[in-house]
Design a protein that fits this description.
The protein has one domain (about 30-465). The two termini are about 30 Å apart. It is globular and about 60 Å long. The protein is mostly helical. α3 runs parallel beside α6, α3 runs parallel beside α10 and α6 crosses α8. It is built from 16 helices and no strands.
Amino acid sequence: MQLKSAVPLSTEASSERGTPPGPGGASGIREALLHGPILPTLLKLAVPTTVVLVAQAFVGVAETWYVSFLGTDALAGVSLVFPIFMLMTMMSNGGIGSGVASAIARAVGANRREDADALVWHAVVMALGLGLASTLLAWLFGPMLYRTLGGSGGALEAAVRYSNYLFAGAIPFWVVNLLAAGLRGAGNVKLPATVTLAGAGILVVISPVLIFGAGPLPALGIAGAGLAMVMFYVGAALFLLRHLASGRTTLRLAPVRLEARLIRDILRVGLPTALSAVQPNLTVIIVTGAVGLFGVEALAGYGMASRLDYLLVPLLFGLGTAVLTMVGTNAGAGNFERVRRTAWVGGWLGFAVAGSIGLFAAVAPNVWLHLFSKDEAVLAPGLLYLRIVAPFYGLLGLGFVLGFAAQGVARVFWPVLAGTARMVVAAGVGWVAVVYFGAGLPMLFALVSAALVAFAGVTVAATLAGAIFREGPK
């Protein structure tokens, strides 16, 4: 079957939910996932999500640029908070969100439409609890954490102020990300992509207004950057909840009795994947703490350079979620030969995309770093990081996407082990090397690179050995 015979993967199902299978609507999406050519189908799923997530990531870059006008303390404060915010982002999108997407994709593949709809309500309930927990943890323990990471004086004050505003919006943040994950799991990439793109455009405008003030609006400084994010996620959450409740999408949101089996179906992928989402962010947090020992300029420079690592995340996340959806749907239908081929096609595509960006950043690091600062004391550690670590970005892409494929078949032990290996090498060995053996930044960054080799190596070895994409009990 050629993909052109199916409707676009973003087609909504307002008029098809009760119709017999055909080339359009939800059934057309399912047919494309099960029988369409692999690479074009992956790209149709991945490109909309990737484009808007890259746009959103550039909003983060723009926000860092705005904050840079507030001074080095503000820039260092954002660098302290950013790994914590990205931890919540990856836990909601790639952790519990992956559990939601995997459960819905497998339900769609097995034609269990009622379960797919019920899983949406379960996701909303989880988002409320996890969002509240995120807010309380950030407010209660954020100041202590930022101080531990090396924040002091003006930098610490800026970090706490920014964090308090940013995490005030954790509940709508979780709601948006889990609903978006559910829609992508059902093959509907248009709606979450549109919401994210619209939000990116709004944030670019309202962030500087809130930070610097305009007309009667006072300048809120770094707090304005956090408040702008909260305003976007509140609006996006309300829009998605209303749209899904209307039944005009591939999934329908309606209150149902919570079922243990559906919660287990989400958590058997979501919990270990959340752990694997914690690992890279905990790694960055510990490495940030180690870099902080070299001074505020080193911290600011490392923050600028490592922000490029996070810019890779939306690129790889868009591809990874496409692979997860396609793998999960085919696993639900019992087509494991197509599961394996999809995993490898996606993995090598991730390697090519991330590797190309890494090589360019290593050769011309100032193209990126000069966006934020031209202070030589700040630039030096950033240049060092990109020249040592960026050439290994391709391995990050390969391991990242294969990990998402593993989520699609609900076998995540090996990707979690790969993340553990990365954390042990970069954070564990790196911290010991700096604190106890007096290693400098070059050695610390070399260990970050070695960690990426370990990360990809474990997942690739497990895939080649047939330990992940096989038929049988999960």
